[in-house]
Amino acid sequence: LAAASIAAMTLVGSAFVGPASAQSPIVIKFSHVVASDTPKGKAADKFKELAEKYTNGKVKVEVYPNSTLYKDKEELEALQLGAVQMLAPSNSKFGPIGIKEFEVFDLPYILPDLKSLRKVTDGPLGAKLLQKLDSKGMTGLAYWDNGFKQMSANKKLVAPSDYKGLKFRIQSSKVLEAQFRALGAIPQVMAFSDVYQALQTGVVDGQENTWSNIYTQKMHEVQKYATVTNHGYIGYVVVVNKKFWDGLPADIRDELNKAMKEATEFGNSQSAKENDDALEAIKKAGKTEIISLTPEQDEAMRKAMMPVYKEVASRVGQPLIDEFLKETG
Ligand code: LMR
Q1: ipTM higher than the 0.90 cut
Q2: Where is the signal peptide (predicted)?
Q3: How far is the centre of ligand 1, averaged over its atoms, from the C-alpha of 209 (Å)?
């Protein structure tokens, strides 16, 4: 970021930290990168509705969807500088700011289902992971679901060998990089907002994402094939600027925590259906052939990706991986 824009962000940020008065509500700028009609978009809008209601308008939440304010990496920098107050980046996006532990969620096939995910996010390990954010000037408030990832390309992806030599867009996670390398593919980190165009122009051949993200970004219009793999998970950590959060009047913070809890329950209860509906909509659009794997083909994919666990153990931390597996097992 240019020095001038950092200065501008800092100025904007500090203007919103301070006590509420009748004339000027406390403003929470909530920036995110997906469409409003997605699990994250809907949970953010629900938080806005409840936060404004429970604080009787003392807090105003401005939601900026679809990377209208910032792209992936910029939004985390903006939060740290106080230019925005709240975000919900995916677990895969904390590595570049020096928190590697959330990448444990990126390990292939680590979550058999959403029930086992909940054991982590609602338990002691989830709480411990959120505390890692403090040292980066953030407070972690909640875990929000998206769902399981699927593979897409302009080529049929069935066997691990089908991935060989293809370029795949990935989020900024070393685990995801290792995953595609294990398949013999070429991973390329790219902001979410750039994926559609990169697929359309052939800068990358394929990508992995949830049905909801694929559909709302229209990726299915520029990908001939998508394979039901459910090989990984995308979920979010809701984070606030710590200084802003700690500086709020205690009663306001309590109401916001209540709003967050309810928005989380609302969002997480709908995420699976949103992805099912998006898959149906993709099928209906008729531009993408949806491929299902036989149990044997599924097994071959799992086997091909297993070396990732060893490869990233020193980065993510073997004890953390073990603890995660124990809690979900
Ligand atoms: C991605 O970059 O693919 C996702 O993290 C986008 C999102 O926020 O769901």
Answers
A1: yes
A2: 1-22
A3: 8
Nearest CA to ligand 1 atom 2: 192
269 membership: H or E segment, kind and range = helix 250-285
Asked whether the beta carbons of 173 and 93 are under 8 A apart, the reply is yes
Of all atoms in ligand 1, which is nearest to the CA of residue 72?
Answer: 2
Return the best residue to mutate from 67, 146, 152, 177 for the ligand 1 pocket (most ligand atoms within 8 A of CB): 146
Which of 87, 106, 169, 234 most suits a substitution to test ligand 1, by most atoms within 8 Å of the C-beta? 234
In the 8-state DSSP scheme, what is residue 246? H
Whether this model's pTM surpasses 0.90: yes
**Which amino acid type is present at position 221?**
E
Segment 289-307 mean pLDDT? 98
**Under 8 Å between Cβ of 61 and 87:** no
Distance CA 173, CA 305 (A): 15
When pLDDT is cut at 50, 70 and 90, the band that residue 1 belongs to is very low
Is the shortest distance between the CB of 213 and ligand 1 below 6 Å? Answer: yes
Q: Are the beta carbons of 206 and 157 closer than 8 angstroms?
A: yes
Find the 19 Cα to ligand 1 centroid distance in Å: 34
Q: Which residue has the higher pLDDT, 12 or 297?
A: 297
Judge if the beta carbon of residue 31 lies within 6 A of ligand 1. Answer: no
For residue 47, give the H/E element and its range.
helix 39-54
